[in-house]
């Protein structure tokens, strides 16, 4: 476990002393109406030294389930540490959150412009200041995401391969699934990793939607994470799940073989056998019905919730190879 001296913490020229609580408003730009958009950075510090953990969400403005998870960590006072410091940024992309859009107002995907530039695009400037002002103070990060559009993700932690410390932290979080995935150039995760920070990426649910089960998985995993670091208050009890994380080494998308009305036959999280019926795609006139079958045995970790799909749409995400295969 990482320990750091309990000294003054300075973010955006604001000082937070040991034992203090403070909300710092990050203001990078104004809207075209000259309205300020503030990104609250909520800091809770113990008087006792310890690690610094960041819980972040809303990197894509329409992924609100992660926002709900971090919000509940705050409202339930889970973010008040026994030792060390907890920083919460419930909405990284306030611009997108206001418009319920994945992108920044400049049309860019914030999660593809890191590490950013002080003189670059609006999204690039924001990325720059997050890495400059917040991340240097942090030891561990849990960043919450959701599936894009109507694609509903099973709760899962994504980590880079061959990192034993990240694997151990993932096992502590204990989401139902763990996916090995390489860092993407320009992503928040990639930049944080390059700065030596240990980051878990949580995926669960879908855009523009809050799911109670996904929220609970995120909260309980976060409590287990903090308990492991000796940061969780005795007022809160981390619930241990009945099953350990299932780690997936390889997975693939199943795409619609035709356009039409989409009728799902299996549940997310379920294990299916090769050739098992997953869904049917039909025309609205009762004449045509196409079957979608599993190309291999595996776990269904994403299901498209759309009622209408088009040929080529991603409709299921299925595991191909498990860690112990």
TrEMBL record:
Residues 49-229 form the Succinylglutamate desuccinylase/Aspartoacylase catalytic domain. It holds the Pfam family AstE_AspA_cat. The keyword Aminoacyl-tRNA synthetase does not apply. Signal peptide: none annotated. It comes from the Bacteria. Keywords: Hydrolase, Metal-binding, Zinc. Its cofactor is Zn(2+). One of its GO terms (molecular function) is hydrolase activity, acting on ester bonds. The keyword Calcium does not apply. PANTHER family: BLL3975 PROTEIN, SUCCINYLGLUTAMATE DESUCCINYLASE_ASPARTOACYLASE FAMILY PROTEIN. This is Succinylglutamate desuccinylase/aspartoacylase family protein. It comes from Flavobacterium capsici.
């Amino acid at each position: 476990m990482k320990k750091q001296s309990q000294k003054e913490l300075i973010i955006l020229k604001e000082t937070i002393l040991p034992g203090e609580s403070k909300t710092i408003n990050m203001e990078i730009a104004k809207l075209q109406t000259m309205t300020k958009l503030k990104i609250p950075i909520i800091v809770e510090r113990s008087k006792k030294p310890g690690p610094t953990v960041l819980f972040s969400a809303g990197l894509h403005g329409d992924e609100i389930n992660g926002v709900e998870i971090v919000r509940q960590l705050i409202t339930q006072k889970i973010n008040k540490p026994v030792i060390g410091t907890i920083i919460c940024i419930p909405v990284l992309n306030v611009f997108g959150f206001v418009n319920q859009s994945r992108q920044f107002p400049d049309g860019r995907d914030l999660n593809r412009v890191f590490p950013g530039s002080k003189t670059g695009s609006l999204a690039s400037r924001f990325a720059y200041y997050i890495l400059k002002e917040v991340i240097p103070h942090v030891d561990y990060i849990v960043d919450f995401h959701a599936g894009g559009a109507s694609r509903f993700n099973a709760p899962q932690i994504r980590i880079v391969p061959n990192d034993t410390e990240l694997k151990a932290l993932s096992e502590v979080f204990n989401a139902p699934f763990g996916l090995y995935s390489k860092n993407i150039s320009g992503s928040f995760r990639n930049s944080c990793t390059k700065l030596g920070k240990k980051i878990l990426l949580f995926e669960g649910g879908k855009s523009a939607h809050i799911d109670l089960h996904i929220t609970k998985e995120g909260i309980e995993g976060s409590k287990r994470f903090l308990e492991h670091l000796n940061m969780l208050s005795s007022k809160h009890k981390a619930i241990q799940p009945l099953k350990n994380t299932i780690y997936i080494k390889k997975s693939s998308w199943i795409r619609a073989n035709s356009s039409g009305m989409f009728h799902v036959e299996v549940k997310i999280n379920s294990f299916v056998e090769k050739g098992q019926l997953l869904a049917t795609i039909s025309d609205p006139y009762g004449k045509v019905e196409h079957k979608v079958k599993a190309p291999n045995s595996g776990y269904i970790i994403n299901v498209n919730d759309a009622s209408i799909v088009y040929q080529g749409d991603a409709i299921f995400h299925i595991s191909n190879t498990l860690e112990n295969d």
